Amino acid sequence: MYLQKRHRILRSNPAIRSLVAETILTPNDFIAPLFIVEGENIKEEIASMANYYRHSVDLTVKEVKDLWSMGIKSVLLFVKAKDELKDNKGIEALNPNGLMQRSIKAIKDACPEMVVMTDVALDPYSSYGHDGIVEGNEIVNDATVEVLAKMSVSHAQAGADFVAPSDMMDGRIGAIRKALEENNFTKTGIMAYSAKYASCFYGPFRDALDSAPGFGDKKTYQMDYSNRIEAVKEAIQDVEEGADIVMVKPALSYMDIIREVKDAVDVPVSCYNISGEYAMIKAAAKMGWIDENKAILETLTSMKRAGADLIATYFARDAVRLLS
Ligand code: PBG
């Protein structure tokens, strides 16, 4: 048979395949999310996230040093606030001595080069488990944005390198940027969760922080998964309002969105390989139905191929181990 072009030539052995690979994962691609709890010497496994833990601040600091030594350069902090500190205004979120603020300081003291990103949203502090202030049945936009801006300044004060608003209120990126500027935090970055969809795959995360919404769902602020153009609009607006990095979340079911956003903006794009995506791989691997290590590398590579410059993932540590 005469064939002018044989595509299999470039696939014929591992050496040639590695020479022509278009997408290569490196430790620089990853942001490691960390869950922090009060107490000392605490390491609790999250039931729906096998082999992922909530750590007290002291063990978080150890974990951060360890991640840094492996080549991971960024962490994204989430705290589990005590029930008695939750209200409808996010008062604890602004506490200069709160768990988040103390964690940021402890991490930056111990590992100053680690890029510390912090979650900005009210859900861990909300008695309703919503990302914003609740009035009646409504999650109100503008009053929430005011608190988010103050919360961002408080994180910057504690030493955060990036604030990462995950709430999906309108106008919060502009308000946060303005608040940071007004308070002289001219070096603090904003990683905006720009296209964050209302997803069933956040379940395990809400277990991790005990932050499931007490009533209703998050569909009046997080995006409808039927929509694509809207994601591009959100991302472009966040860049205009001052975002340094824009995020698409979740990742696996939203690869098309990652690509669309990547093509539309001129800032780095991140994606969040979320808790439910982690749990699915863990569960299938536990059943013996898939090879966990291969699934980790295949899914993360796909996210980068789709256009993600950065990937927040609970597999950061595993991936770096597998790559080395
Ligand atoms: C809430 C927040 C969520 C996640 C990050 N920040 C959950 C939600 O919106 O309910 C999900 C992360 C994950 O599932 O891994 N502000």
**Total helical segments:** 11
Total domains = 1
| Uncertain residue segments | none
Shape: globular
Structural class: alpha/beta
- Computed over alpha carbons, the radius of gyration is 20 Å
Helix content: 25-40%
Can you lay out the helices and strands and say which pair or pack?
Blueprint: H1 14-20, E1 30-37, E2 43-46, E3 49-56, H2 57-70, E4 74-79, H3 99-110, E5 115-120, E6 133-135, E7 138-140, H4 141-158, E8 162-165, H5 172-182, E9 189-196, H6 203-209, H7 229-241, E10 245-249, H8 255-264, E11 269-273, H9 275-286, H10 292-306, E12 310-313, H11 316-323
Parallel strand pairs: 1-3, 1-4, 1-12, 4-5, 5-8, 8-9, 9-10, 10-11, 11-12
Antiparallel strand pairs: 2-3, 6-7
The protein binds ligand PBG.
Give me some keywords for this one.
11 helices, TIM Barrel, two-stranded antiparallel sheet, alpha/beta, eight-stranded parallel beta barrel, binds ligand PBG
Descriptive account of the structure:
The protein is built from eleven helices and twelve strands. It is α/β, with parallel strands linked by helices and 324 residues long. It has a single domain (21-323), classed as Aldolase class I (TIM Barrel, Alpha-Beta Barrel), CATH 3.20.20.70. Strands 1-4-5-8-9-10-11-12 form an eight-stranded parallel barrel, surrounded by eight helices. Helix 3 links the parallel strand 4 (74-79) and strand 5. Helix 2 packs across helix 3. The longest helix has 18 residues, at 141-158. The protein is globular. The chain starts with 13 loop residues before the first helix and ends with a helix. The model has no long low-confidence stretch (mean pLDDT 97). The structure holds ligand PBG.
